[in-house]
Design goal:
- With about 120 residues, the protein is mainly beta.
- It is about 10% helix and about 30% strand.
- It has two helices and eight strands, in the order βββββααβββ.
- The radius of gyration is 15 Å and the shape is globular.
Length: about 120
Amino acid sequence: SHKGDAYRHYWPFQVSGCSLQLSMPRNIQYSEKYQDDIYEYRHVILPTEIARVCPQNALLSEHEWRQLGVQQSRGWEHYALHKPEPHILLFRRPLGTDPVTGRVPEGFHGALPVTMH
């Protein structure tokens, strides 16, 4: 065991558009949650090493963003691309979503994905 390894987490990942087997430190930053009348939101800031090798023009599925090392409860959707800052992933989920199952409230009808310029 190397000194300092207890503070590092490494993982292999493969996401559509980037097929790499790399050992990278996880320095992912998570915002506090915020909300409007329909959704709760949060943003996730990826470290440069990860953002540099992943697609910047496509929304990621839950499976894909989890492979990057993003860790959050169930039900979050990567819903928008913010082109000026592609290393920031924008997430939302309907208010009242069960964080354990990801099940949305009955009768919820969501909106279409958004691309921000």
